[in-house]
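Review form for a predicted model. The reviewer records the input and the model, then writes brief findings.
Reviewer: anonymous (R2)
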Amino acid sequence: MEKKLSKIELERLYTKKSMSIREVAEFLGYSKDMVYRSLKEYGIKTRSNKRRSRLKDIDLSTLENGIKRKETRGYTKELYLDESTLRHHMKYRRPAG
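Model under review:
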């Protein structure tokens, strides 16, 4: 039987840090379904999938400096993101050329 998720931890990661259900699940080592069920059980409102990326609010040079400083893996942990999210964002945000 899986250990129950903490309401405080879910609120901190999902609500305050704006992590996705998938990111919370990976971070805590649970399934997405378990995180989703726990959010519903605790009455924490889920967001729509059409929310704006937090990365759009961060200046491109700040992102590039963070990646240089900590490399992609380290920087995504600092931002509470999945590596593929940052890679995808950087691929389409950098000027062509």
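Findings: The chain has a mean pLDDT of 86.
Further findings: The two ends are 53 Å apart (CA to CA).
Recommendation: see findings above.
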